[in-house]
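Recall that a protein's primary structure is simply its ordered list of amino acids. Everything else, from secondary elements to tertiary packing, is in principle encoded there. The following example makes that idea concrete.
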Amino acid sequence: MSGVRAERIKTKFERNVRALELRPGVGRGTAVTTVRLTGGLACEIEEGPWRLASDLSEKSGGDNSAPNPGIIGRAALGTCLATSYALWAAKMGVEFDLLEVEVQADYDTRGMYGVDDVPPGYIQIRYVVTVESEASESEIMRVLDQADACCDYLAVFRDPQDVRREVKILDRSAKAE
């Protein structure tokens, strides 16, 4: 990361910290993502100006027209880790010449299909962080440890979340009239 870009990131980071310290309420909000089944097992994902797509593989009954939800979930974790490392590296004055995060997830698809009382989800998730830097190993580890402690999606994957379902059933008879 260039020095100019790192300085810009550090300045924004510190400004955000000051704003949150002065007015903690500005840090709270609700993000809303809408996912709509578009045909078969394909979905359109929408949040604000962003549009993404998801589908399952042909062997799972989909058309393989887009990444599956597992890829998107692992990408969310990997990108959140990578950007957290970059934020904290800029804040702490550590330059990375290369930063790569590989997310590995062990799974058993029997859970997805309700076979053999196997729970759905991952058995284990690992992430491998590759860093190239002139900084010392202790400086690099300080950045990585601090970033891991503050990484939103690492917390989502690592810690139980309060998840609630709300169901809205539309009255089809009202459409027919």
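Residues 69-92 form the longest helix (24 residues). Strands lie at 34-39, 42-47, 50-54, 98-107, 122-132.
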